[in-house]
Amino acid sequence: MESDGSFIVFPQSVGYGIIIGVGAAFAIGMMGLSWLLSKYMNEVQDSEMLSTAKRSIKTGLIASAVVSSWTIGSTLLLSCTTTYNLGVSAAWWYGAGACVQIIIFAVAAIELKRKAPNAHTFQEIVRIRYGAPAHITMCAYSLIQQVFYTANLLINGSSIFSNITGINREAAIVLLPLFVIMYTLMGGIKATFLTDWTHVVIIFVIMLIFLFKAYTTSDLIGSPDKMYDLLIAASNAYPVEDNYHGSLLTFTSVNGGLFGLVLFGAGWAAAVDSQLFQKAIAADPAGALTGYTLGGLCWFTLPYALATTMGLAARGLEITPDFPTYPERLNADQLANGLVLPISAYVLMGKGGAGAVLVMVFMACTAAFSSETVAVSSLWTYDIYKAYINPNANGKRLVIMTHAGVIGFGIIVIVLAIGLGRAHFDVSFLTTCCGIVVNVCVIPMGCTLFWRKMSGFAMVCSTTISTAISLAVWIGYAYSQSKEVTLASLSTYAALAAGNTVAVGVPVILVPIFVWIKHDNFDWNIWKTNIKQADDSEFDEAHGLTNVLSGEELTELVISQEQQEEARMIRKRNIGFVIVTVFVLFFLILFPIPLYGTKFVFSKTFFRGYIVVTFIWVFFSVGVVTIYPVWESRQSIATLFKKLFYKETSSKLYSDEVYAIASNNIEKTNSDDADLKQRVVVNTEKVSDEDSNK
């Protein structure tokens, strides 16, 4: 064990080998898959495909993508560290405090798909509704969250690689996103969804290995009962401050509750991040609600189950001679560097365990980076370039700008991550403090989707004033507690909880006041008529597609199809409200609060059942995010392999939209454009005839 807070297990060659080797393999694999889909499945990477995947992603892939994009290094490392410090309650609060936002977001996703079916970003609907001032304000908040969030995940990932393999931290910051940028340039958001699924499969498989090793086969633990005995001994040796009886096995924990409040507040920052809406926009309307709900339930298991296993294992084994630091405890530097998970894995599985942690962190960081890159490039392309620089840009020009956005964003966050790393900013601090600035947008964003009277004046005033108030409360509370303002005083659970909750809560008061001063009466149909799909016809034709529909025709076609789905979408939204109510009550009140209030300390029987339920939940999540997407896409996968095996390519290629219409046997639309109706029917018949001739 190194004195500088590192834990060198491997030579530098292993660190560079994982980052470069695995990164290059993913880049080559995804670029090859993008080429195959283009050649055999008519998926040309035009501007709409790059940014929205033609709004066709199904439920299972949405769920796995949500899990992947919500999972960063901090999800794996910080959850284990806080559980090591505070006990079982921290694992629950990390998962519950940050997953309910995903489930709540499912309702917003449905409403966005219903009211603005052709939107490319959430900021785009803000611009159409409120105009430039509110739009620029919203873009600024989103970019702040995205830039710091992405820089944070690079700092997090590079720190773990540096502390376990000894590689240069700044080199890791540069290399981690390098190959991600390459495959994102080639495959856009569709490549992001596919890599999300691959990364999630690997992360869940490794987590399952850890669970089975700790609770069934390990000589050091091997059963929930042995883990319970170790935790009782650890609680007696080193009682947890402000936990009931100092126990690791209780939810009656002051700091545990504050940590949950911090996570609940900080988790809302992700809603301001445009990548979450980007996945909603890319979703098939029928799958948005189910995809986000399942994604939230499955993501919960990652920090919860991993920390309940590895965080508790580290704390229990720390008092045994098998632990690397015995008889000393982990020091502050090791905890700040997030080494609880890798050290715990090393104790249980040797170098193989530490290597598995490196792979998990690599997968989490690169998948999240890819999602952020696509979201920021779309924001740049549609909300800055097309909105204010070149409103008449065609699809070819938008593709160029999207690629420029991918490269530019990568350079900016790499430079920022290196700077923040040199300034020794703590990863957990960056994770939890961003919400104090950007959470102020959550209520105005909800009002934008659900309240006609919401105005641009109210959005601008409520967000900016609330930011000033939340920063003042955060800094003021930190000063009142320690009589100084430092990174340490600003990083306390109480100060962060105060800042994050005020940021979410103050707009609840300010928005109605500013709406009363100046209100609007918005016509929801404006989003349908004024937001149009990009015209990629020239680009598609240049890449071999024929019978391509123009942007205007595609816009009209999508709107007409949406009108047919209106009743079903409203029903799904209402179901979503019920689902949200049930799960929010369960995660935040019905389960944890009685355990907190009754000062209950887990018995051995209760802990055994707790672990059994954890395993069941993990198995459910594995099925949803790994098997379900494959089952759901089985026909497309079979078609691709059939064409590969028989070397079949269409003698005449059609646009994705026309082919989709043919596949779904849609022979007419509600459009008033007779020519469009005829083109759709004719193209449908041509595609159907071509398929039958094969």
Automatic annotation (TrEMBL):
Membrane topology: Multi-pass membrane protein
A single Gene Ontology CC term: plasma membrane
Locations listed in the record: Membrane
Keyword field contains Methyltransferase: no
CDD domains assigned to the protein according to its UniProt record, in alphabetical order: SLC5sbd_DUR3
Main location: membrane
Upper classification of the organism: Eukaryota, Fungi, Dikarya, Ascomycota, Saccharomycotina
Keywords: Membrane, Transmembrane, Transmembrane helix, Transport
Residue spans crossing the bilayer: 14-38, 59-79, 91-110, 130-151, 171-189, 196-215, 248-271, 292-314, 357-380, 400-420, 427-451, 457-480, 492-517, 575-597, 609-631
Official protein name in the record: Unnamed protein product
PANTHER family to which the protein is assigned, alphabetical: PTHR46154, UREA ACTIVE TRANSPORTER
GO MF, any single term: spermidine transmembrane transporter activity
Pfam families in the cross-refs: SSF
Source species: Candida boidinii (Yeast)
Homology family: Belongs to the sodium:solute symporter (SSF) (TC 2.A.21) family.
